[in-house]
Design goal:
Blueprint lengths: L1 H24 L15 H12 L7 E2 L9 H11 L11 H14 L9 H10 L6 H17 L2 H11 L1 E3 L2 E2 L1 H8 L9 H8 L15 H16 L5 H14 L2
Parallel strand pairs: 1-3
Antiparallel strand pairs: 2-3
């Protein structure tokens, strides 16, 4: 019994030392309180991937102030990716629980449980490689992010640096690329289409009326109306555009 207790405290001490070391060596997101990131870790990863194939990847990115982004685009992205963003501290444990249940049932990684804060941390600092160490770093950085930046600032950075196509990062660059207009001037239907490609932006295109895009866009428009982010008239107008696009 004494040996078990001894080993328990040894393991606990090792874990605490390891966590402390990780905390001390990870970046401080507070540096982005008043300045914007340059090339993110995810951008660099995409550039390196292209180089390994003998290709050159041009990063298309344009920053836009949070206040200038269309409110319906903000709502569509949040509802699509993290409905409880403004009410949690970086982790949605209910979503994590459901993801574990779904993935266990399907016997494959089908559903993710990452919040907007976790996704931003991965984009800014981490690689796409999955490992226990990376998940620990992600958790530590997410805690730092939530403690050092406001929710609005976190969401603003997320919207400005999320991958939305091959070499396309941020909603402003994406809206200008796909819709030939600023992220402040898109329609509700366009906002829903763009938000619908987030889970797999290099394989989906908001201008390609595929079955998957049709399904996800319709669900998102319905949820925008259900959660009272748009009026009945707005919903009907968007569904009119929907029917024309997916005729």
């Amino acid at each position: 019994m004494l040996k078990i207790i001894k080993w328990f405290f040894i393991i606990l001490a090792i874990l605490l030392i390891s966590l402390t070391a990780i905390y001390m060596t990870t970046p401080e997101p507070g540096e982005f309180l008043n300045k914007n990131p340059g090339l993110t870790s995810f951008m660099k990863k995409r550039i390196d991937d292209a180089k390994s194939k003998g290709e050159n990847l041009h990063i298309y990115h344009q920053y836009i102030k949070y206040s200038d982004i269309n409110k319906h685009l903000k709502a569509a992205v949040r509802i699509s990716e993290d409905g409880g963003f403004f009410f949690h501290n970086g982790f949605d444990f209910g979503e994590i629980k459901e993801s574990i249940k779904t993935n266990f049932k399907e016997k494959r990684f089908k559903r993710g449980g990452s919040t907007i804060s976790q996704q931003l941390v991965k984009n800014l600092y981490l690689s796409s490689n999955k490992s226990l160490l990376r998940k620990v770093k992600e958790a530590v950085l997410t805690c730092k992010l939530e403690n050092q930046l406001s929710k609005i600032r976190i969401f603003s950075l997320y919207l400005n640096y999320i991958e939305l196509g091959n070499g396309i990062f941020g909603v402003e660059a994406a809206c200008r690329k796909y819709f030939r207009k600023s992220a402040g001037n898109i329609t509700i239907f366009e906002a829903a289409r763009l938000a619908s490609i987030i889970p797999n932006p290099r394989k989906r295109n908001p201008n390609n009326p595929s079955k998957t895009l049709r399904y996800k866009t319709k669900i998102l428009l319905t949820r925008l109306y259900k959660f009272k982010k748009i009026s009945k008239q707005d919903y009907n107008t968007a569904m009119g555009e929907f029917k024309l696009f997916f005729h």
